[in-house]
Design brief:
alpha/beta, six-stranded mixed β-sheet, three-stranded mixed β-sheet, 14 helices, 12 strands, flat
């Protein structure tokens, strides 16, 4: 598994259309009325990585297994959702389960598609959703603090946890997201235990009309002014791309529109950067497999992504850098030219490493 993203936004901003396109399915009903998504739709897509095909060709692998990205299409939130308005808190709970939030904002005019707020204003829409998520967090932390207050009278550890909770509560009352707080390592672990929605990394995505996909428009410019890393994509274009059968067709289609890559590729690249992720590979005749890990992970931790027994019984790992593996035409050539390293528990995995783990069963 790569990572899990929850797509949130007001009703009728294009969430289900984008979800359908990104996952190449029609499992999320895209319709012009609020709450057409009744349950969170979940879809998985392969993370595109050209290195997989290169490695597979060199090794003669029978199968390619890419990393996976999971999208969760969460029903449109409305003003008052934190208090049960619209579809209410049941959907806020789904957001707590994701690694990152994709906040989709409507940045296009269309008289045929109703806007629940009566006009197109992505800054206002952003603030509505952010406020609801902060209010949901505030209600959650206040409830947790009630239980902590009792324990803190007799338990020093509970008192420390309560201090972190109080800082979170104060931040939310000031109208700020938890992700804006800088915690030290110990307090960061405590903060994570509260499962705050606004602590999650967020990626703003501007859904523009087809003609503005390459350049953006006045609506997306308002969002990028506050969030320079916000993406500009067209859910309608993504829907068209999803219907194309070959990579060549996609490339021609994108080129005609003045686009360099699909919205899916943009979201994946931005998501990996947001969550500080990277990829290593296991390669052999049977399969070439991509594994997603957090940057800075040690060799044993990386092995644990395959199976916990690999991490527990880790002895050593044999490592070849991607460029060396390709240049030497595989493991045998890399070993012959001294490009294979044998590393221990302190080795920090690098992006693109080809790894083979030895462990005690």
């Amino acid at each position: 598994m790569g990572f899990k993203c929850g797509i949130v936004g007001l009703p009728n901003v294009g969430k289900s259309t984008l979800f359908n396109a990104l996952t190449k399915t029609a499992s999320a009903q895209a319709a012009n009325y609020p709450f057409c998504t009744i349950d969170p739709n979940i879809g998985r897509v392969a993370v595109p990585d050209k290195r997989l095909h290169v490695l597979s060709k060199v090794a003669g692998s029978a199968e390619i297994i890419p990393a996976q990205l999971e999208f969760v299409d969460i029903a449109g939130l409305v003003k008052g959702a934190s208090k049960g308005e619209g579809l209410g808190n049941q959907f806020l709970s789904h957001i707590r389960e994701v690694d990152a939030i994709i906040h989709l904002l409507r940045c296009f005019e269309d008289s045929d598609i109703t806007h629940t707020q009566g006009s197109v204003d992505p800054v206002r829409d952003r603030d509505i959703i952010e406020t609801e998520l902060m209010l949901a967090d505030l209600a959650s932390i206040e409830k947790q603090m009630m239980n902590l207050a009792k324990k803190a009278r007799q338990d020093k550890e509970a008192a420390k946890v309560l201090e972190v909770a109080e800082r979170i509560k104060t931040t939310l009352e000031e109208g700020k997201a938890i992700r804006e707080i800088e915690f030290d390592e110990d307090n960061s672990k405590i903060a994570k235990s509260f499962f705050m929605i606004t602590a999650k990394p967020i990626l703003y995505v501007c859904n523009v009309d087809e003609g503005s996909a390459a350049t953006g428009n006045s609506f997306s410019d308002l969002i990028k002014k506050d969030h320079p890393n916000a993406l500009v994509i067209s859910a309608e274009i993504e829907k068209d791309i999803a219907l194309l059968e070959t990579e060549e067709d996609k490339e021609v289609f994108l080129e005609d529109l003045g686009l360099k890559e699909t919205g899916l590729d943009q979201i994946i690249h931005a998501g990996y950067e947001l969550l500080n992720l990277m990829t290593y590979f296991t390669v052999g005749p049977k399969e070439t497999h991509a594994w997603t890990i957090t940057k800075g992970m040690s060799a044993p931790q990386s092995a644990g992504k395959i199976h916990t027994d690999f991490e527990k019984g880790f002895i050593r790992a044999e490592v070849i850098a991607y460029n060396d593996y390709v240049a030497c035409k595989g493991e045998t050539g890399a070993k012959a030219q001294g490009k294979m390293q044998t590393v221990g528990k302190d080795y920090i995995t690098r992006n693109g490493d080809i790894m083979h783990f030895l462990f005690n069963k």
